[in-house]
Amino acid sequence: MRHRQRGFNYLGLLFIVAVISLVAAASVQVGAIMQRRAAEEQLIFVGLQYKQAIRSYFEASPPGAVTMAPRRLEDLLKDPRYPYPKRHLRKLYEDPMTGKTDWALIRTLDGQGILGVRSRSHETPIRIDNFPDEVFHFKDKKRYADWVFVYGVVCSDRGCEIGPQQDDPGSPTP
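Given the sequence above, the corresponding structure tokens read:
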């Protein structure tokens, strides 16, 4: 009688271990999705910070100077057009999707200035709809690299009409 009972206990223990393993695997997967959603929210926040900083740079042209786009992202940290520190951005943010500060830059037609940034990540977004009004054009985009944060360009439901990107040749226009 005791031998049967030991076998039953052993099977019960194996069943409990299997259930715990399934629950742990599911929670890891849910955690990864939550982390990716948080990174998407951070990407939207950071991208809009860059867009606002570029707008501020344009609007802060010194009196009598020609309005121009920043030539480098570092110009947003300390505007070279002023003798005293004029900051449009507190720091250069990392791309939450790649973990690097190597943003793909959206340049002016002459290639000298920066109009915006976009991620270099080619991963598929989790979020495909219900974006804030400022980035409504992200709807149904197939990769994070299609999420462009650009100042001074008109965007529609089909995307933003901008020329080919010099920092990433061969990439499609967002």
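Strands lie at 104-107, 114-118, 148-150, 155-156, 159-160. Try to locate this feature in the token string yourself.
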